[in-house]
């Protein structure tokens, strides 16, 4: 054993769910006495948490592994692409170990083999923050409530990488959320592969938190999270009927009036080819009902254009659907094949130039919708969470904007603010994606 702390470099790729995995690994390494360092040259070993969702993400992962091998030479690979160990070792045969997603103990064990933990470290005396090691700013954090997915969408290989749905015990989730809020977190971003399905694998078993019974169910979890005093933002919510129960919580202010729904398309024939879950043909009706209950609700989604078999009529159907749905925030991707996905076997793959042209038309349509909806906010007063402050300017987000994927609001002075501050702001201007504003005086209610 060494008589000093080992030093670990860490590269985290992929989605927020993978980021939570990275935070869990780093927390355990820190608990075991290792120092986490920001450069390859200072590290005794480098851990690369990979993404394997689409081919471009796999290439990014291979490139990151290659850079770590070149700059350091001692590399441990984990994450979603880790399920393809042969593909990784074909390109980088000298990596020290390869593990798949959620295999925290194996990753930490691999680090122990390369750099045995220090004799001098005492996890009961050495400082590890109670909320664990976080890779996000202190004022917001991702809260992962489950692993895996029970769906078998034809374009996706997540179930083969992360397995079937496994919900975390509701008491564990709420304990983690409470620790985060006590440590200064102002916003909890709830993530999973399928947030609406939380607890279905446990048959919605009743758990306990602080002596009170809480069902392992989306509604009960959201209701309890809403008592902690932080913003609660819901991601990856399929529009199942049980989501209707959450909208009154939004109207009451318990959780943010924001839903991130991965709809992917609107054409019934394309959705059938995608093997998408839920009664998506009723989504427009459901959106209307939600807006009646909570008029201020913000709806975000992502879509895929150029899916195999998508016709011009299918695409026009999608554009008409966008006009009707009037979603606030939308992302769009050109279809990209993924090794192992059943969609690869579908007929009538769309030419790349057609995919690109449809993507451009889609984004032009949504930009027009977004700009119009943001213009309607000018003059209103919104609560804003400040993300960053520079001399003469403060940048934050309203409840309608998730970090990194949505828009921002810019204040033309720093007003003595700090990241994590929440204040009321009057909207003074808007473009297609972002807002501008100034502090407003409002009643505390």
From TrEMBL:
Catalytic activity: L-aspartate(89)-[ribosomal protein uS12]-hydrogen + (sulfur carrier)-SH + AH2 + 2 S-adenosyl-L-methionine = 3-methylsulfanyl-L-aspartate(89)-[ribosomal protein uS12]-hydrogen + (sulfur carrier)-H + 5'-deoxyadenosine + L-methionine + A + S-adenosyl-L-homocysteine + 2 H(+)
Top-level EC class as recorded in UniProt: transferase
Domain MTTase N-terminal intervals: 6-116
Domain of life: Bacteria
Physiological role: Catalyzes the methylthiolation of an aspartic acid residue of ribosomal protein uS12.
Family of this protein: Belongs to the methylthiotransferase family. RimO subfamily.
UniProt protein name: Ribosomal protein uS12 methylthiotransferase RimO
